[in-house]
Amino acid sequence: MIDLDYLEFLENILTDNRKERFLHVLENRTKHFTVAVEDVFQMHNTSAVMRSCEVFGIQELNVIEQRFGKRIDKEIALGAQKWVDINRFDSVSGCLSDLKNKGYQIIATTPHEKDSMLEDFDISKPSALFFGTEKEGLSQEIMDNADGFLKIPMVGFTESLNISVSASIIIQSLTNRLRRSNVKWQLSEEEILEKRLLWAKNSIKDIKRIEERYYQENPR
Fold first, then answer.
1. What is the pLDDT of residues 16-34, one digit of tens each?
2. Alpha-carbon distance 130 to 189, whole Å?
């Protein structure tokens, strides 16, 4: 349960422009789609995917680090890590289980005989979009557990795109279609309050000291 008094206290520290910006961005945030990246070796590619999620309104990014333990490249992410929720998993099975339990269908973004072209993809169902490694693509475990397959139509000689480019194209296309649809894709009121609180905390320097002062003056 969100402490509304605490939220109001923090937001009073922010400028009106900052608070209005939060509300505008949250109006366009969604968890209807989520993105998952599997064992991406090049750190900057994971960071670039996170940046695309932030720019196009995907609230959650799932990172599977089964083989390569990494940190988010803050220079490439350009602050996106403050606004996107990162769910980390040390196994493919753990990520698949978590997303299925949340009601997502598993969509592998890779050429496949039963794939759907990007423009034909059914956006009505909550979907987890999986992107694989630069060299090997998605693992067989994800392919075997996928509920569907999605690919970008290409007409040149090159048969594949860099993961960050593929993710950007797919996320931009699907979120634009989503916002023009009748699908209920928006965050819930509770989720919006949670993000307002988190983003306010992320925006205030010396937040620990301010938080301590608030709870000293307003004991629970």
1. 999 999 999 999 999 999 9
2. 27
CA–CA distance, 12 with 19 (Å, rounded to integer): 9
**CB atoms < 10 A from the CB of 42, how many?**
17
Question: Residue 76's pLDDT band (boundaries 50, 70, 90)?
Answer: very low
Predicted TM-score of the model (pTM): 0.89
Cβ atoms of residues 138 and 38 within 8 Å: yes
78 is in an annotated binding site: no
Q: Is 76 annotated as a binding residue?
A: no
Structure-derived torsion over alpha carbons of residues 141, 120, 32, 38, reported in degrees to the nearest 10: 30
* Residue 150 burial (CB count, 10 A): 23
- 161 a known binding residue? yes
